[in-house]
Amino acid sequence: MSKSPQSVLSVVVPVYNEAAGIRQFHTALVAVLKRVSLEYEVLYVDDGSSDAGAQYIADFCREDSQTHLIKFTRNFGKEMATTAGIHAAQGDAVLLLDADGQHPVDAIPRFVTKWQEGARVVVGRRTGRQAPLIKRMGSKLFYTLLHRMAGIALDPSASDFRLIDKSVQADFNRIREHNRITRGLVDWLGYEREYVTYQEKERTDGVAGYSLRKLLKLAVDSMVSLSISPLYVTAYIGAVVLPAATLLGLAMAINFLLHDPLHMHATGGAYLGVLILFLVGILLVSQGIIGLYLSHIHTETQNRPLYVIDNENVADRS
Ligand code: UDP
Ligand code: MG
Question: What are 240-267's pLDDT values in tens digits?
Fold first, then answer.
């Protein structure tokens, strides 16, 4: 891998209604990029902003041929914006960066250094989280659930502020699924990761585009895309209920046939109760079976690459 000064760093910035702070952001970003000993390109992906942000960015593009704008027709969400940016990036490494100033541009040289030292995935780890309490609690709950249900131990402090080498970008571009979390997919691809710690700042201007409702949707989407275990839940319940109801039913049948030796004095209602429990058990188990098949269809339709091969530092077969 050549990481000479001629290497190009692609910086992908998803933008949604950031007009208020975008100029300040761009100036700071370019100042830092000029300091690192690399060529660069900046790809802004305007995610259907309803403010003048895209016009400002178009101005930046006119002023500087290394800045480019990809403009969505409407709001598709940050995950799609980052995906489009990664698809379009032509550099030797791709850096993902938020436009709201929460990812300090001053940390970029440290990402680049790690990459130049050979890291192919460099993940920004935030300290001093500024999010409100409810958001912090929600994300803690989400990570715990994801760990329990999907066995995936995501690092809650790992952010979207990350750099991937172009070999990782190539693997990322092979992933075609629609419901996607960029961060989760980068994690899924594997590769050893290096970390850069940064202090998360308050967003410079505007409001977070992610409302609680959007975040909740994001959490549910990640869960569905990363874990199939919710589909097994009814199967597990059914697996407990059905044998219990069967045993209970048998006990009651024996009791009935032998004229109540255990003195249970079971009423008609009790018999009915056990019968219903039995039928519910059958329903739960059959739902669980459907869930099993659905989980297979789910993974098939995601159509992820079967495996990811690390082509580096490996003796060529031929
Ligand atoms: N963003 C986007 N589309 C959206 C929402 C947000 O492209 O629908 C961008 C936004 O402009 C910012 C980044 O994604 O650059 C992070 O968004 P935000 O600050 O709202 O999220 P948070 O800081 O809560 O992760
Ligand atoms: Mg933000």
Answer: 999 999 998 898 888 888 888 877 787 8
